[in-house]
Task: inverse folding
């Protein structure tokens, strides 16, 4: 873990036998000092490390795909190969399976989300970056909001306002009396809980993962002292921290995949009438 | 009012432990049945895996809400 985290939660002199308790990391490790700030109108913008990393992710993805497809060949080579692999993964693995053939128009949309979310998650295990961009709640909320304002108008456009909301709130094949119970529940689960969990799932995974790695890294530092138990405990904590980093790499990919999968499910529900 | 019993300390962690029971059972069932389904019908692997991950994501969200709640509502 970066040194500022260790310092922030106890200082360099805090060790096992020096009499201070374990400086467990909390939500404060997700708060960064402003690098710069500016005002436009009444809005204040504070630029922190996370903002910089987010823009870095955007430019890396833009740069890579522009480079990969700058002059596409029929027989792909080098970077174009990798870019096409990413494209086919989203098209065949997510879009065609979930939405179907008419989902091909949404592949660029899904692909942007997948790679942006994956790379912003991945920043959590990049040395010196070491903060998953998506572990700041505002960012997954923005992602989920973009998805939300895509599929609701899309459903209204494709199925008509009445037809869409009738299909969503009054699912067919249910006894009439059940609608008293079912309609409020469907409204809540489709229009409120759905976007909320879409954002919270991504955020909480990254938040929890980062906190876990930080806890074990700080434990490795804290336990390091001139005693057998201190050295063994420190080595064990460090090993766990390294293992968790590998585990996080898996979770980061999985969460980006799940985010995109759910986006495809929502779009599919807007395009086709539910049966 | 006299207190008969009191719990002090890190109550949030107990709360998270309780919140993780349900999703833990749920995720176990999802992956157990998913692996069974793949073993019975290996050619349907793609569809089964996708639905497995979808169900896993929905069940996992509950555990994660439990994880975040103590941070949101304080101690």
Result:
């Amino acid at each position: 873990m970066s040194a500022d985290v260790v310092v922030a939660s106890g200082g360099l002199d805090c060790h096992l036998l020096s009499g201070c308790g374990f400086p467990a990391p909390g939500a404060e490790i997700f708060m960064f000092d402003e690098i710069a700030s500016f005002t436009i109108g009444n809005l204040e913008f504070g630029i922190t490390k996370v903002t910089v990393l987010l823009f870095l992710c955007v430019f890396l993805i833009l740069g890579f795909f522009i480079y990969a497809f700058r002059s596409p060949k029929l027989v792909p080579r080098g970077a174009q190969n990798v870019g096409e692999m990413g494209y086919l993964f989203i098209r065949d693995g997510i879009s065609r399976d979930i939405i179907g053939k008419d989902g091909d128009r949404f592949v660029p949309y899904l692909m942007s989300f997948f790679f942006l979310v994956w790379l912003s998650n991945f920043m959590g295990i990049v040395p010196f970056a070491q903060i998953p961009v998506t572990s700041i709640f505002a960012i997954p909320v923005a992602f989920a909001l973009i998805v939300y304002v895509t599929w609701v108008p899309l459903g209204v456009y494709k199925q008509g306002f009445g037809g869409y909301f009738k299909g969503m709130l009054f699912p067919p094949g249910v006894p009439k009396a059940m609608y008293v119970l079912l309609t409020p529940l469907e409204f809540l689960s489709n229009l409120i809980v759905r976007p909320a969990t879409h954002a919270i799932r991504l955020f909480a995974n990254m938040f929890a993962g980062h906190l876990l790695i930080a806890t074990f890294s700080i434990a490795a530092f804290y336990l390091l002292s001139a005693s057998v138990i201190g050295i063994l405990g420190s080595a064990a904590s460090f090993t766990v921290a390294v293992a968790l980093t590998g585990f996080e790499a898996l979770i980061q990919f999985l969460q980006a995949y799940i985010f995109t999968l759910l986006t495809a499910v929502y779009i599919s529900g807007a395009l086709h009438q539910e049966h | 009012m006299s207190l008969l019993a009191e719990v002090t300390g890190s109550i949030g962690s107990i709360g998270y432990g309780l919140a993780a029971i349900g999703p833990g059972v749920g995720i176990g069932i999802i992956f157990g049945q998913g692996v069974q389904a793949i073993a019975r019908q290996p050619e349907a692997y793609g569809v089964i895996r996708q639905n497995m991950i979808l169900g896993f994501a929905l069940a996992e969200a509950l555990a994660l809400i439990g994880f975040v709640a103590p941070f949101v509502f304080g101690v």
Observations:
- Helices of chain A lie at 3-8, 49-68, 79-98, 107-122, 138-159, 161-169, 179-223, 228-271.
- Residues 179-223 of chain A form the longest helix (45 residues).
- The mean pLDDT of chain A is 88.
